[in-house]
Amino acid sequence: MSEAEEDTFKAVELDQQAPGSASTDPTPVQPAAAEPSSPALQSPVTPSTESAGPAMPPSAQSKENQWTSAVNQFKLKRFFVLRPGTLDQAVEDVKSLVDQQVDGRVLSTWLLAEVDHWNNEKERLVLITEGSLLVCKYDFVMLNCDTIQRIPLNFVDRIAHGNFTFPPRSLISREGDGVRVFWDRLREPSFSSRWNPFSTDYPFSTFTSHPVRGNSDKLATLCHVQGFREQLAEAAREAHSKVPVPGKANGVLVLNQPLFIDATVGLMSIIGNQNKLGYCLARGNIGF
Length: 288
Hints:
The chain has helices at residues 3-20, 39-42, 60-76, 86-95, 191-194, 217-222, 225-242, 267-274, and strands at residues 106-115, 121-129, 132-139, 144-152, 158-165, 177-182, 204-209, 253-256, 259-260. The protein is an alpha+beta fold and 288 residues long.
């Protein structure tokens, strides 16, 4: 190849490479400006609050709950058992009436409500001792124990616990659960006792929680009816083992079953329970 042809080839070669070839020392390529993105990509979508309107005030349900709580607190304050020192004084008064030779040592004290065969509630102070179950009608107004029912623990043969049930067409009902203590399984209440609202000739007693159970932790323990049932079953087993009854099967049968109350109309219990006539309450000025 001649020198002229070589020069021409080189020139042509440089001309062909110049437009598309990169330089040996390339400058950094600046990224092209991004095109304006769509409005959906520029800013996150936020829910519109224009249609929601102004902020709502506290809900009606919250106000209703506060009102209900205030009313309940007012109702609880009417119970004389909540007066400072009243319950402690009542427990001391009842403990002083315990016969150590017959009843033995006091194991526990409970504030419960007794439910009779006509579904009437009655405020009761109940003591479990080593040998007896003491059901006390205590006057929290006059601070005086009116009556005491003594049930020997070695005679307790059944303890049933469960919800309350009534006849199919009964007009009354009762929420919650209770405990029924039996001490004579061979004896059934007579016809006259069943129809007498003031009859006490029944071989069992039924208890449920006191209305003030939610006022404090101390009262929650004293009014816990299932805790009462556990303590009573344990104490009755001990009494059966220490003092067995001749000719009677010893032991306590604990049953989980509905507690049936054979009351259909119960007008007296409806009026009495709604007005808490079986409790010591401050009922306002009734004089003139």
